[in-house]
Design brief:
heterodimer; A: 774 residues; alpha+beta; B: 5 helices; 50% strand
């Protein structure tokens, strides 16, 4: 006995050391909270090149904070820009702040293209030369040369027809940012300057959010006093809003449920130290789970914590069970250990089923839960016997009261026909509802950012002339030049679609850098133009003939120069940035970005494929929605498998009574799904995840009840555990974060049904279940 | 003593040359007619080749509405500017049409040209610093761009006139020069 107790003590101390060690390792890492719904989903289903393209296009958005500074008063506006820049520049997490546009740099960057003037022709020049209307170009050039406000440099020898000027003019149509009073001005908003903040780190890092936004956000009201409006866009804003809302809700909801649980426990046990003992395993469980999650994952998702809130209910189960049983017998541990172990095992198994799914989010939740459960369980088994040695818990009063009340409730044993039949009817009805029910996998339903932020983002994007289009076309190829050739082949189709109003605008890499073959063709066109029109032009202007020879010499010198995409990287604003995929691993491709009033369908795709057979039409929102649908179906299989696994284990120990354990959570899940499907637009993946929790808690309840043959104190324990879970999740149903709300709602319904069904299916004294406890 | 006189005369010259001719003063000196038409003589000098290209024609403008710039020789061509667009015609065909809403370069250039032609000194003050001198009715003012971007194309504008603008010299960044002389002005 002494040896035994020494061992117990050693193990208890050892467990304490483990907890401290885990905490120490975990918090030496910087915690990052993830709020992106995307990261919950596996991305691997997309072709790697599509994924790379999507990441590359999103990359700029995620590492940038864009600020618009607006005011009627120019002075105030300029002052405000300087103030923002002054505050943000020294922040460590800010890589650079761009707020000026150097006119010289623009000139240099345009100058760099000048060498390629003969190879870069605008569409209208190409058409004119191909249609033998070169005289029109000559007249145009004359007009250009005689124009009093000579548009950009007219170079009589180097570029008498103004080929480069025409090229740059066409390009500048797309420009939405212009230098203005030495600041970045916007073409579409007169009284606005632009500031671009490049972040040094991940927008999801709480550290970055804190550092950057704690400096930026106080400036908004401060500058508003001087009549200056600040508007911003960028992932960091949304990530911060999401994290903040989730954190705030988690703390109010968490605190609310904790207070509720403590009051409940106190009401039942009437002793503070007992309440403390109850909470201890929960606290240790949550603490260890959080530590391990931060230790293993770079970012921990907010949903993981929401899911983790469910731990409270399950973890408190063990403690309740232990304390309630302890009133009956002193050597309680030995007696309830099989039940506790089985409870742990079944829950861990259910969660591990999640861990082998392809969902990164689910894996994280599974690990979080498993770690938390094991820690809570170990705390109960290793610490509680030592801590409760001198404590007499007395909950008989409550247990008896509950038992008496429950005895009055109908049960399946008392009214097998009525209850059995009505259960059957309700189940059939529920199944009918589920079969007819809809699913709703649109990721946009899960949008967590407040509408005002989304509207601001939209406005900024409109002014900048960018669209965070989630749809784009991808043209794969062996060598980049092939992509450009394919784009050339695609262009007539795009023009046609634009004419028909099926797409609004599109952007091609080859509009900036034509394929080499096209550049060759352009030089041939210019040769024709020079042969036919150069002398005529010069004589009309009345300039010496020698200039014609010089112009020809200049043409010969530069006519073999070709522009390749890599050269544009040196440009100040690379118009092809993000549109070229050049990955060693996944291959090469170019992105055709476009916006369309309606989603492109099979018709348009067929047209596009006629021009470029291997073109890929990517719609990220669509892709994610179908991914969610896919995985919703898969998850259903996983949930069924988890039930099956648990069933096999339980059947081995409980034989025929296994239905009493499994039926309540199973039917509860069915009823819950039926209700959700009739009140919500549809169910999705996240409702199913919540049902896994219902399974875990429900099966635990069933096991404990069966272990003690539905003893009164066990009923008290499971009732309290159900109530604590309801408190924890029920409050989540009030959340403004859609995903948390759905979670809460599902578990709220699920557990209520589990308790009602367990009560209906309880073992009555006549069946060997005992209400008497001593 | 000689030195002192020299120094004084130098100082005097400097002050005369720098006599501030503010935009306010210019506004007082000049008329800003609602509409104006007249003839022009343009000489474009291409510095690199020491070549001049001459042209002439007539123009009409309606304040805040449009400027028509009709070249008669060496070829016939018509340029019409409105605050929002530049369109050029040769014979019956439209050669070049640009919408300033979408093209910031067009916007700036048409704004400046409008401002020069119609003596909108306020607008010019946004883009240029002015230095000038005045002798009785005649004045000369040199405008230098405030911003690098504008300086890429225009290194300066020299305006001369009395009640009305009589001569414009546009100095391009690459050394080219456009000199326009107005005559037969009728309001």
């Amino acid at each position: 006995m002494t040896g035994n107790s020494t061992l117990t003590k050693t193990l208890a101390v050892f467990w304490l050391v483990v907890i401290v060690a885990i905490a120490f390792i975990a918090f030496s890492k910087k915690p990052m909270l993830d709020t992106s719904m995307m990261s919950l989903l596996p991305a691997s289903e997309q072709q790697p090149i599509v994924k790379t393209a999507a990441e590359q296009m999103g990359g700029a958005f995620s590492k940038r904070l864009i600020i618009l500074v607006s005011s009627e008063d120019k002075q105030a506006r300029q002052q405000a820009v300087k103030q923002v820049v002054e505050k943000l520049s020294p922040v460590e997490q800010v890589e650079s702040v761009i707020w000026q546009l150097d006119g010289l740099a623009i000139q240099q960057s345009q100058q760099a293209l000048f060498d390629y003037r003969y190879a870069l022709l605008t569409d209208s020049l190409v058409d004119a030369i191909d249609d033998d209307k070169t005289s029109k170009i000559r007249e145009q050039a004359l007009g250009r040369l005689l124009n009093p406000m000579g548009m950009s440099s007219t170079r009589l020898v180097d570029d008498p027809f103004g080929l480069m000027a025409a090229w740059l003019e066409q390009k500048s149509v797309d420009i939405s940012i212009v230098p203005k009073d030495g600041f970045l001005g916007l073409v579409r908003a007169d009284n606005t300057y632009l500031i671009v903040v490049n972040l040094a780190a991940d927008a999801f890092s709480m550290n970055t959010q804190q550092a950057v936004l704690s400096v930026y956000q106080p400036l908004i009201p401060k500058l508003a006093d001087t009549g200056v409006t600040l508007e911003s866009a960028g992932l960091i804003i949304h990530a911060d809003a999401g994290a903040r809302q989730a954190k705030q809700e988690m703390s109010t909801i968490g605190l609310g449920s904790l207070i509720g649980i403590i009051l409940l426990m106190f009401w039942v046990f009437r002793r503070l130290n007992i309440v403390g003992l109850m909470i201890l395993p929960v606290v240790v469980g949550c603490f260890v789970a959080t530590s391990i999650a931060f230790m293993i994952f770079d970012r921990v998702h907010i949903v993981t914590f929401a899911f983790g809130a469910g731990l409270i209910g399950v973890a408190i189960d063990y403690a309740l069970h232990f304390l309630c049983e302890r009133q009956v017998q002193d050597s309680v541990l030995r007696r309830i250990l099989p039940g506790l172990l089985l409870g742990l095992l079944s829950s861990v198994l259910a969660y591990l089923a999640l861990a082998v799914t392809p969902f990164p989010g689910l894996r994280q939740m599974a690990l979080f839960s498993v770690a938390g459960l094991i820690a809570a369980w170990l705390t109960v088994v290793l610490w509680l016997p030592l801590l409760t040695r001198n404590i007499q818990a007395d909950s008989f009063h409550a247990a008896e009261k509950l038992a008496n009340w429950q005895a009055k409730l109908p049960s399946l044993a008392h009214y097998p026909r009525t209850i059995g039949l009505s259960l059957l009817l309700v189940t059939v009805f529920a199944v009918c509802l589920i079969v007819q029910g809809k699913t709703e996998d649109d990721i946009r339903l899960l949008q967590t950012s407040p509408p005002s932020l989304i509207a601001q983002e939209q406005r900024v994007q409109n002014l900048l002339g960018v669209h965070s289009g989630t749809a784009f076309m991808l043209i794969p190829c062996e060598a980049l030049d092939d992509c450009l050739n394919k784009e050339q082949a695609l262009k007539p189709t795009l023009k046609q679609l634009k004419q028909q109003g099926r797409i609004n605008r599109y952007r091609l890499v080859s509009d900036e850098v034509p394929a080499l073959s096209e550049q060759d063709a352009n030089v041939a066109r210019v040769t024709k133009l020079y042969e036919q029109e150069l002398n005529g032009l010069l004589s009309q202007l009345g300039v010496p003939e020698v200039l014609g020879q010089k112009a020809m010499a200049s043409f010969t010198a530069d006519s073999d120069k070709r522009l390749v995409p890599a050269q544009l990287n040196q440009a100040l604003f690379n118009p092809t940035a993000g549109l070229i995929i050049n990955s060693e691993q996944y291959g090469k491709a170019t992105v055709v970005s476009f916006s369309s009033p309606k989603k492109l369908n099979g018709d348009e795709l067929a047209l596009l494929q006629q021009a470029v057979p291997d073109i890929i039409l990517v719609d990220q929102v669509d892709a994610i929605s179908s991914l969610m649908a896919n995985h919703r179906e898969q998850l259903l299989v996983w949930v069924s498998l988890a039930y099956l696994c648990v069933f096999v284990i339980l059947a081995w120990r409980y034989k025929q009574t296994v239905w009493r354990i499994l039926l309540p959570p199973l039917l509860a899940s069915t009823f819950t799904l039926a209700i959700l499907m009739s009140v919500l637009p549809g169910i999705n993946l996240f409702h199913l995840m919540a049902l896994i929790l219902v399974l875990g808690i429900g099966v635990d309840m069933g096991i404990f009840l069966t272990e003690t043959r539905h003893a009164a104190q066990t009923w008290l324990a499971v009732t309290l555990s159900a109530l604590t879970s309801l408190l924890a999740f029920g409050l989540l149903a009030l959340s403004y974060t859609p995903i948390l709300m759905h979670f809460g709602l599902t578990v709220l319904f699920g557990l209520t049904f589990v308790w009602i069904l367990s009560t209906l299916m309880r073992q009555t004294p006549e069946q060997g279940g005992h209400v008497e406890t001593r | 003593m000689k030195r002192l006189i020299f120094a004084l005369s130098l100082l005097l010259t400097v002050t005369t040359a720098n006599a501030e001719l503010s935009y306010e003063l210019l506004a007082k000196l000049t008329d800003a007619p609602q509409s104006l038409s007249g003839k022009f003589q343009q000489e474009k000098t291409l510095s690199e080749f020491d070549v001049s290209i001459m042209s002439n024609g007539h123009f009409v403008y309606e304040r805040d509405a449009f400027i028509e710039w009709i070249t008669e020789a060496p070829i016939e061509s018509q340029l019409k500017m409105t605050p929002d667009s530049i369109t050029s015609h040769q014979g019956q065909s439209e050669m070049l049409s640009m919408d300033s809403q979408n093209n910031p370069a067009v916007k700036v250039i048409s704004q400046i040209f409008f401002a020069v032609m119609t003596a909108e000194w306020d607008t010019l003050a946004d883009y240029f610093d002015a230095v000038g001198e005045q002798q009785e009715q005649r004045w000369t003012v040199t405008l230098t761009p405030k911003e690098d971007t504008l300086r890429q194309t225009i290194s300066g504008v020299v305006l001369q006139g009395d009640k009305l603008l009589k001569e414009v010299t546009l100095l391009e960044a690459n050394g080219d020069k456009t000199h326009i002389k107005f005559s037969d002005l009728t309001q």
